[in-house]
Amino acid sequence: MPSFGRYAESREEPAVFSGFRVSGGMVRTKAGSLWRALPGALGTAGRVDSVELKVLLDEHLADAVEMLGPQLHVPSLRRVYFLDTPALALARSGIVVRARELRRPGSSTGRRADVVVKLRRPCRGKPPRGRNLVVELDALPASVTWSGSIARRLKAGAVTDRMAARRPARNLLDEPQRRLVEVAAPSVDLDDLVVLGPIDVVRLRSVERGYRIDVESWQFPGGANVVELSVKCRPTRSKHTVKAVRSLIVDRRIALAPHQLTKTQLAMRLLAD
């Protein structure tokens, strides 16, 4: 296992939400300013496995799909859950525990399932290294964080079954994942984690200008909805990818949300309320 000691209990307060209005960390977004912090972050983060560009849209899913054009793959449906304490102690320590079931439209059973533990930090230093750890830079329009994640694939239906268990975290997480949680948030007892969710997700994928573009719609309990556009690339291709995606957004007149946060930030606050 990698050493996570210097990342333990680093408390990053999540933004405060009222619906989707943000009382802190607001960014009025223009396409030309997207992801300007990424080159500097790449220079300080050292070796990373991938870069993901992310931006929330001020569009309904159907409108965003129409703007992206006809080169769409078959949509996938996902049911997403998070695990945290009622007071969001993991989120405040920069830890995300997410489980999901994936299936195709028209299918009554899951296609596969997985659970991932992510350690997420602002990009002010080098991330840890480890045999099981996948390191990615998450580039929001005005900020960049790195995330180190350990994923575990599960059989179809496993997430739904284990969410109903008395201690879902211990039933879902394997030893490396539990160790990451325990070291990064030592004050949190895994047995205190509760299930937050589910969130129903529709994911559409399009190939535009040689790039694979994902559009996800997250439907939260209570009716709130958010649509995100994302593109994953190799670090060495990030400059070209940023230029191409900015151009696509401008050319297709895709409207960007006035406040830019991660889906996980929105999810944790809305689900905990």
Please describe what this structure looks like.
- With 273 residues, the protein is α+β, with helices and mostly antiparallel strands.
- The chain has a single domain (27-272), classed as Hypothetical Protein Pfu-838710-001.
- The protein contains 8 helices and 11 strands.
- It has helices spanning 38-45, 61-68, 89-92, 158-163, 168-172, 175-184, 238-251, 263-272, and strands spanning 17-18, 21-22, 50-57, 76-84, 95-103, 112-122, 134-139, 144-154, 194-208, 211-219, 225-233.
- Strands 3-7-8-6-5-4-9-10-11 form a 9-stranded mixed beta barrel, surrounded by 5 helices.
- Strand 1 (17-18) and strand 2 form a beta hairpin.
- The chain is globular and about 50 Å long.
- It starts with 16 loop residues before the first strand and ends with a helix.
- The relative contact order is 0.25.
- Mean pLDDT is 84; it is low at 1-27.
Summed up:
This protein is of the alpha+beta class and 273 residues long. It is 24% helix and 33% strand.
